[in-house]
Amino acid sequence: MNWAGESPGTITAVHCRSAGQNACLVADAAAGVVTWSVLVGIRATCAVARTLQPLTDLAARPPLLPERYWPGHLMHMLADAGRAQRRGATLAALRYFRELASCLAAAIDLPEIIRTSTNPPNASQDLPIRSIEADDAVAAWVDRVFHR
């Protein structure tokens, strides 16, 4: 969000009035040209793909080779292996993050932090200690995960 509470890249009528009508006209024209160019590119790509489909089908499934040697078959095998690896990596990352969360929850006394933060004189003195404790908990978890 920017200073006006809008998403980055949005131009509102308030900005246009303050920046002048010509600036809005140029911005609108640029957005129109970009949109039109993308649509033309997509249509051209689809037309080329439809035109070349018989050739790509022949290249992906050569009639003289057994099916197990077809490039399309090999690509599907690689995709299946990659999908399995991605799922395994996702599950491992999820386990590590759950372990990190439990370590942090065990190392940080949340009720004590809330009590000290509601009492301003003690909160400023206790904050560096809590920071150090949290850093130590994260460092211990990283050491355990990476076997250091």
Portion in strands? under 5%
**Rg estimate, integer Å:** 29 Å
Q: What global shape is seen?
A: flat
Mean pLDDT: 76
Based on the structure, what is the oligomeric state of the protein chains? single chain
The largest sheet is: none
Count of helical stretches: 5
What percent of the residues sit in helical stretches (DSSP H or I)? over 70%
Q: Runs with pLDDT <50, length 5+? A: 1-6
Helical/strand content category? mainly alpha
Q: What is the ordering of alpha helices and beta strands?
A: HHHHH
What does this protein look like?
With 148 residues, the chain is mostly helical. It has a domain at 1-60. It contains five helices and no strands. The longest helix has 40 residues, at 21-60. The chain is flat and about 70 Å long. The model is unreliable at 1-6 (pLDDT under 50).
Q: Could you write a compact summary of the structure shown?
A:
The protein is 80% helix and 0% strand. The chain is mostly helical.
Question: Can you tag this structure with a few keywords?
Answer:
148 residues, mainly alpha, 5 helices, 80% helix
Task: Chart the SSEs and their pairings.
Layout (H helix, E strand, L loop, with lengths): L12 H7 L1 H40 L10 H37 L2 H9 L1 H26 L3
Helix pairs in contact: 3-5, 4-5
